[in-house]
Write a structure and sequence with these properties.
mainly alpha; Endonuclease Iii, domain 2; Endonuclease III, domain 1; 2 domains; 0% strand
Length: 213
């Protein structure tokens, strides 16, 4: 297991390697960012960005989406995985925003997680990106990097990973660390064929050392 100092050092190396790391979802309002984040589940940000301009133009406000059937949304998002379920989520979430939150995206974890299709990760992303509220979203990239580097135990839950990273990293650096770990997972510590041989964190990574033997 890495020590707290080693975890912070690892994040520093990731940030130095990818100083441009940040959200790659494109949205013009908090509401549209929420929709894009829901759509990004099991889809790449690039694929989401390709379909959202038409979706956002057709449904600029929560009330616009709240008044239609999911079948009317499906043609706009059918290129994404699980698009039928996602269409239902978007409509239901929009209805909840209209009826429960006066048409505004809520800005607490508890309230966000009452929305259809919004779990802890989506809620954390919205809090951090839209409202500058410290949060540490844990997605598949963050989970993989944390487990492989032994920031946590190999079978640690998402919640355990989140708590460990939040405890180890200062709150003002949570969002940057989140983005740095995502980029590390996308381009270095990839799901398949990770670049262990050239990874600057190899001296700290037992998983990587085992891979290059």
């Amino acid at each position: 297991m890495l020590s707290p100092d080693e975890i912070r050092y690892s994040i520093k190396v990731m940030r130095q390697t990818f100083p441009e790391a940040g959200t790659t979802l494109i949205a013009d309002t908090n509401y549209h960012f929420l929709l894009a984040t829901i759509l990004s589940a099991q889809s790449t940000d690039q694929s989401v960005n390709e379909i959202t301009p038409a979706l956002f133009a057709r449904f600029p406000l929560p009330a616009d989406l709240a008044g239609v059937e999911p079948a009317e949304v499906e043609p706009y998002i059918k290129r994404l995985g699980l698009y039928r379920n996602k269409a239902k989520f978007l409509v239901k979430t929009s209805q909840q925003i209209v009826t429960d939150f006066n048409g505004e995206v809520p800005h607490t974890l508890k309230e966000l997680m009452t929305l259809s299709g919004v779990g802890r990760k989506v809620a954390d992303v919205v809090l951090a990106e839209c409202f500058n509220i410290p949060a540490f979203p844990v997605d598949t990239h963050v989970s993989r990097v944390a487990r492989r580097l032994r920031m946590v135990e190999p079978k640690a839950s998402v919640l355990t990973i989140e708590k460990k990273l939040m405890k180890t990293i200062p709150p003002e650096h949570w969002l940057d660390a989140h983005h740095s770990m995502i980029f590390w997972g996308r381009y270095v510590c990839t799901a398949r064929n990770p670049k262990c041989q050239t990874c600057p964190l190899l001296p700290l990574c037992v998983t990587g050392q085992n891979n290059v033997i």
